[in-house]
Amino acid sequence: METMVNNIAIEKAKTSKIKDVDFDNLSFGSVYTDHMLVCDYKNGEWSAPKIVPYQPITLDPSAKIFHYGQSIFEGMKAYKDEDEKVWLFRPLENFKRLNKSAKRLAIPELPEAYFMEGLTALIQLESDWVPKNPGSSLYIRPFVFASGKGFHASPAGEYKFIIACAPSGAYFSGKVKVLIEQTYSRAANGGVGYAKAGGNYAGQFYPTQLAAEKGYQQVIWTDDNTHEFIEEAGAMNVFVRINDTLLTAPTNDRILDGITRKSILDIAKDEGIQIEVRKVSVHELVEAAKNGSLKEMFGAGTAAVVSPISAFGYEGVDYDLPELTDSYASRLKKRITDIQYNRAEDKFGWRHEVI
Ligand code: PLP
Ligand code: COI
Fold first, then answer.
1. 237 C-alpha vs ligand 1 centroid, how far in Å?
2. Could you report the per-residue pLDDT of 263-293, keeping only the tens digit for each?
3. Which of ligand 2's atoms lies nearest the C-alpha of 29?
4. Of all protein residues, whose CA lies closest to atom 4 belonging to ligand 1?
5. 258 lines ligand 1 (CB under 6 A)
6. Which of 23, 106, 116, 142 shows the greatest Cβ crowding within 10 Å of its Cβ?
7. How many CA atoms lie within 13 A of 176 on its CB side?
8. Average pLDDT, the chain
9. Which band of pLDDT confidence, cut at 50, 70 and 90, is reported for residue 175?
10. Could you tell me if the CB of 142 is within 6 A of ligand 1?
11. Tens of pLDDT along 112-149?
12. Which ligand has the minimum distance to the alpha carbon of residue 306?
């Protein structure tokens, strides 16, 4: 039976899987909630979104997603506070970035109301699934892909927009050891690196597997032209602290414009931390590691939150980062998560109440 709640048709699942979930031992993104949002694009328009029981989708083998990779996604989280209220963090930024990615992949852009109203209704319905344990949250995965048929290499005529959710724990289990990539590239000038396109991740898997064989969990991508400047990691933007200055690469068409990255920059400014948004060369990093001025490196992203880097590998040498007691990473992580979980004043206006 379907009911309408705030413009969204809802077909409820007959039974809930929630009792089977061990909320004390959540991994990242591997169990899914009872419902999902679905919205179809056909005949030149997006139809109104619906919430349906979480279920597999059936596609024609000629669906263009399989052949030409027209697929984009977002990553967001819902957070539960002490009073069981549920919050999103800067959701409009995800909506805007999804449409930026859509445009680059020749996917029709979504109406804001479908995204925001659909997302809100889904998270309200799934609010019991938002974990309360420290460090856990409901990971939200909005995605759009070409469901339309045809082997012709051209944009599909039909698309599906889905939002699926997974109660999740930490993305990394501890500190992250990274390899500075010197051979492969994640993105190129004029390419799709700034979009959250599925293919950007597929292209990283092989070099990341090679790095994993050498004991590194993530690759730090360098510019495709010279491999001299660090850009970002597989699933996060990268920050470096040299002496007391916090450095990060400027975004460009090869780098994902991370919402965590820009929030961290605003918080760091607010903390009175000296910031430089500029190109950071591998040479500078190696020199700083050798002379002791390299104090910290960390990644920042929705899934990764703020993840300290324990060491980086470059040209066969591992450079260890020192253990600091009052690190920028821990200060900035506390500030951002206190806002996300409604434990602190939201002076930037980033929190978005769901229920
Ligand atoms: N860079 C890449 C390649 C990512 O996949 C992510 C994750 O979304 C980020 C950076 C961080 O972006 P955000 O902070 O918006 O999650
Ligand atoms: C996120 O941080 O939400 C991401 O999309 C990264 C993902 C590849 C796990």
1. 6
2. 999 999 999 999 999 999 999 999 999 999 9
3. 9
4. 235
5. yes
6. 142
7. 28
8. 97
9. confident
10. no
11. 999 999 999 999 999 999 999 989 999 999 999 999 99
12. 1
Q: Virtual CA dihedral for 298, 301, 302, 306, nearest 10 degrees? A: 10
Give residue 174's pLDDT band: very low, low, confident or very high (50, 70, 90): confident
Nearest ligand, CA of residue 233? 1
Distance 62 CA to ligand 1 centre (A): 30
Q: Say which ligand is closest to the CA of 74.
A: 2
CB of 235 sitting under 6 A from ligand 1: yes
Sequence-separated (6 or more) residues with CB below 8 Å from residue 332: 264, 267, 268, 271, 306
293 C-alpha to center of ligand 2: Å?
30
Beta-carbon contacts of 234 under 8 Å, excluding residues fewer than 6 positions away, are 186, 201, 204, 208, 218, 219, 221
> Could you read off the pLDDT of 73-110 as tens digits, one per residue?
999 999 999 999 999 999 999 999 999 999 999 999 99
Residue with CA at minimum distance from ligand 1 atom 9: 236
305 lines ligand 1 (CB under 6 A): no
Give the phi and the psi of residue 12 in degrees, each rounded to 5: -80, 145
**Its pTM surpasses 0.90:** yes
Determine phi and psi for 335, rounding to 5 degrees: -60, -45
User: Does residue 302's CB lie within 6 angstroms of at least one atom of ligand 1?
Assistant: yes
